[in-house]
Write a sequence for this structure.
């Protein structure tokens, strides 16, 4: 940062309540009133250097005490005091932080060369051109101060010239960057890096007001020089700098942690950032898009903003990781912790795009690989949110069922999610258990998972029976090497009858209290199943002489039911 010192005399201004005056043996003959502050000054030396004061004092005699109201001076009383001290020759220090109000006030008072040689405006312009515009951080600080005097700064060309200077430096090749900049990325140590990072400028420009930041980004993008990813990184840095963090815990809506004014400011920043995201896919990460969507839910952003974020996130959803999706719910009415509705909305957007592609994708096509990657991601997410003790079963089932059948090559992940939910929610009703387990395709369970399922007392009896049959069918196929269609045809009658018996018993016992569901009903079902299985094995034995292992394998369910009955 560069500074300019003007004047040599000591500061003789002093303030007493709302009055500012100069220590002098000469009585004051000029009173300047600005807002609530009164300056007791002297016509000499102010009037000779200020064209405006010359005009206002033209009708007064030299001996008259003149009072002038200058309530509309840009920069207010502080800026006027700098100009007054310059007239008295009192030492003042100028920098990027106070240049704009001093320059605007000097222009307002017409302290130009036409009034007196070597006047204030000339010195300020020289400092602006040689120091502020030549410096990186000086240009940014000066530009930021223009927000208090936007019209004056715009009319005097300060904003345009600062933006041009900043953009020029941003577009400078990194090998020629020689000025100081702020770069505090985790793990980055300047001394260990000889080269300048491509995004060296992003942190410093994030100090700007959102409208000025937009001007910088728009000007940089118009050159088509920086890649879209670099623009996206600048947006990411700005969002981290100014938007609330909703990734750690649920914000306290009722605590007044954010006033409506600050929420409105955050909404304006969010919507501006979303509008500046380049259309190029990958210009920002999917994690950043999901984070913006979570913030949008918290701030109550406009539907247009949310829809645009969901659309962009849907385009890149395949790139998401589990950690990218774990956001707390932002609705105060939600009792559950995780924002499962956010994930469901993005998944729906992704599926709309996915269905527009080839209607008959081949097994190894990118379309199938993409949807299966999403399937594994959603199942992993379900396993996490299933641990939420307040998560409604309807939301879990809705998200799980949103995926098409092709999305799951196996149902092991879905089974784990269901098992976790049942473990964390022991009071779930039988109807809800059936509703969850209805999503499972037992044919898509691995042998290890099927082995776990048949011993899982949390599952409904119907589900265990289905797993047993498919497990038996799989074992039979591996022994006989018969075509799958023949095996299924022979097992289907047995399975249907067993299911019917099981349903009748479950319905009958459901009308009684849970304590009446005794091991007697299970034994009856077991005996009928065993009898039907034995008959099925006998028929197979007639066709396959010498295959004695088949009957032994078909009797395995008996041992499982005996274990469940003994409990």
């Amino acid at each position: 940062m560069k500074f300019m010192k003007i004047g040599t005399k000591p500061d003789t201004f002093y303030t007493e309540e709302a009055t500012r005056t100069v220590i002098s043996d000469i009585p004051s003959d000029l009173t300047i009133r600005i807002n609530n502050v009164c300056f007791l000054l002297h016509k000499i030396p102010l009037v000779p250097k200020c064209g405006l004061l010359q005009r206002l004092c033209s009708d007064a005699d030299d001996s008259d005490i003149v009072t002038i109201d200058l309530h509309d001076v840009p920069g207010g009383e502080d800026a006027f005091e700098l100009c007054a001290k310059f007239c008295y020759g009192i030492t003042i220090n100028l920098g990027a932080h106070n240049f704009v109000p001093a320059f605007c006030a000097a222009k307002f008072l017409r302290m130009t060369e036409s009034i007196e040689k070597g006047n204030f405006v000339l010195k300020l312009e020289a400092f602006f051109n040689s120091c502020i515009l030549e410096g990186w951080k000086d240009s940014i600080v000066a530009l930021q101060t223009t927000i208090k005097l936007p019209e004056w700064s715009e009319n005097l060309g300060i904003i345009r010239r600062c933006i041009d200077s900043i953009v020029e430096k941003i577009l400078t090749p990194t090998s020629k960057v020689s000025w100081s900049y702020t770069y505090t990325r985790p793990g980055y140590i300047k001394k260990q890096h000889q080269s300048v990072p491509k995004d060296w400028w992003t942190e410093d420009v994030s100090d700007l007001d959102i409208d000025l930041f937009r001007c910088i980004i728009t000007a940089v993008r118009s050159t088509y020089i920086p890649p879209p990813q670099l623009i996206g990184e600048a947006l990411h840095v700005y969002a981290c700098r100014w938007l609330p963090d909703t990734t750690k815990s649920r914000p306290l809506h009722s605590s007044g942690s954010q006033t409506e004014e600050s929420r409105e400011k955050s909404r304006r920043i969010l919507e501006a950032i979303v509008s500046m995201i380049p259309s190029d896919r990958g210009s920002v990460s999917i994690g950043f898009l999901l984070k913006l969507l979570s913030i949008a839910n918290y701030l109550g952003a406009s539907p247009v903003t949310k829809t645009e974020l969901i659309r962009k996130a849907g385009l890149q959803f395949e790139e998401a990781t589990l950690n990218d999706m774990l956001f707390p719910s932002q609705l105060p009415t939600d009792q559950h912790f995780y924002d499962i509705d956010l994930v469901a909305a993005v998944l729906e957007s992704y599926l709309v795009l996915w269905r527009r592609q080839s209607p008959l994708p081949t097994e190894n096509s990118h379309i199938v690989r993409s949807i299966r990657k999403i399937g594994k991601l959603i199942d992993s997410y379900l396993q996490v949110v299933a641990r939420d003790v307040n998560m409604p079963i309807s939301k879990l089932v809705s998200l799980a069922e949103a995926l098409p059948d092709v999305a799951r090559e196996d149902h092991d992940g879905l089974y784990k999610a269901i098992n976790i939910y049942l473990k964390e929610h022991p009071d779930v009703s039988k109807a809800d258990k059936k509703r969850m387990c209805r999503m499972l395709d037992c044919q898509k369970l691995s042998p290890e998972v099927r082995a776990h399922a048949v011993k899982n007392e949390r599952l409904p009896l119907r589900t265990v029976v289905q797993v047993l049959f498919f497990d038996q069918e799989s074992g039979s196929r591996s022994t006989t090497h018969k075509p799958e269609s023949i095996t299924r045809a022979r097992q289907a009658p047995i399975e249907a009858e067993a299911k019917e018996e099981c349903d009748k018993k479950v319905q009958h016992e459901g009308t009684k209290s849970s304590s009446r569901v005794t091991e007697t009903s299970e034994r009856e079902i077991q005996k009928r199943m065993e009898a039907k299985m034995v008959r099925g094995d006998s028929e197979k034995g007639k066709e396959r002489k010498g295959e004695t292992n088949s009957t032994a394998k078909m009797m395995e369910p008996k041992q499982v039911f005996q274990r469940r009955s003994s409990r």
